[in-house]
Amino acid sequence: MRRQSKELNIGGVLIGGGHPVAIQSMCNIPSYDVENTIKQIDRLYDAGCQITRLAVPDEEGAINFAKIRKASKLPIVADIHFDYRLAIMAAEGGADKIRINPGNIGDINKVREVVAACKERGLPIRIGVNGGSLEKPILEKYGVTPVGLVESAMRHVDILEKCNFTDICISIKTSNVKNNIDAYRMMAEKCEYPLHLGVTEAGTEYMGTIKSAVALGSLLCDGIGDTIRVSLTDDPVKEIYAAKAILKSIGMTDSGVNIVSCPTCGRTRVGLIDLAKEVEQKLSNVKAKLNVAVMGCVVNGPGEAREADVGVACGKGEGLIFAKGEIIKKVPEDQIVPELIKYIEDLTGEKI
Ligand code: SF4
Questions:
Q1: pLDDT digits (tens, 9 = 90+) for 178-216
Q2: Cystine design at 331: which of 56, 79, 105, 335 (Cβ 3.0–4.6 Å)?
Q3: Distance from the CA of 258 to the center of ligand 1, in angstroms?
C-alpha cells in the first residue's frame, strides 16, 4: 500500500496521488556552461530520468537557467538558496518546480513574492531540508536527528501554509542512512505532501548506491516516497541506472528485465558467471517487464526457472530452457544465450 499523498504536476510529470515513483537527478555541470548542461540533460533523458534539478547560484545562473529550460527535454527544478529574487527569475525563466526553504528567505513578504510567482504559473515548491545545513536553533535543540529534520521541514511548511500555498513537496535528507529512514517515516505521518526521497552525500558509486538502496528501498517498501534521487559523486547518469535498479528490485517498475541468477557453487558445471552477465547485458534495453532466471544446477534451478517468464537451469555443459513454467528444450552451453534471447523475442515481440 502506497502512502496517500497530494498530487503535484512537475512540468507534466505527475507525482503523488498514487502515480508511479518518479526518477530524479541533478546536473553537475557549472551553471555558466549552458551547452554542456543541455548535453547532460539529453543523456539523463536517454537514460530514463524524468525530472532534473539545476543549481541557480546567482543572477548569471538564473539567466542561463531560462536558456537551458528552453532546450531541455526534461522538467527542471530550480535549486535556490536564500535569494528570493533568483527564485522569481527562475519561475519566470520556465522552472517546473522551485526548491527553496521559505524559512531561509527572511522577510515574509519575500516569501509571499515567491509564492505569488509560483501560484501564477502552477509551480510546486520543494522544501529541501538537509542534515548539513539545519538552522542553528534546530541544531542546538535536536542536533542532526530525525526529530530535528522533521521539525525543520514543518517550520518551512507552516510558512508556506500561512501564505496559502500547499503545492508542496518535501525532502529531509541526511547522510546517515538509519536517521534518514527514521526521519522520512516520521515525516510521512505528519502530512500528506509528496515526499522526495534521497540520501544526501551518499558517496561514490558503489557505497552511494548501497546506502541509497537501503534507505530508499526500506521506505519504498513501506509505501513511502513519490520521487527518488540516488545521489552519487559521479556522472549523474549512473544515478538513473541505480534508481531504476532499486525500483526494479522491489517490483516498482512497469518495464525492464529482472535477472534472477544463482551465486554458483561447487555444483556448477557451466560458465554461469559470464553467462549471467551476458544475458543481463543483452537484455538491458528490453522494455517489457520480465523475470529471467539463470541458474547453475538442478537443485534450485528448475524451481526458479519455472517461476520466471523465461529461464535456464544448467547441468554439465548444457542447459534446460524454460518458458512460462514449461520445459522447452535442452541445449548445449554455447546455445543457452541465443535460445533464451529467441524465446524472449517471441514473448515480447521486441528485437534484441
Ligand atoms: S542453483 Fe545450484 S549451482 Fe547455483 S548456487 Fe544453487 S546449488 Fe549451486
A1: 999 999 999 999 999 999 999 999 899 999 999 999 999
A2: 335
A3: 18
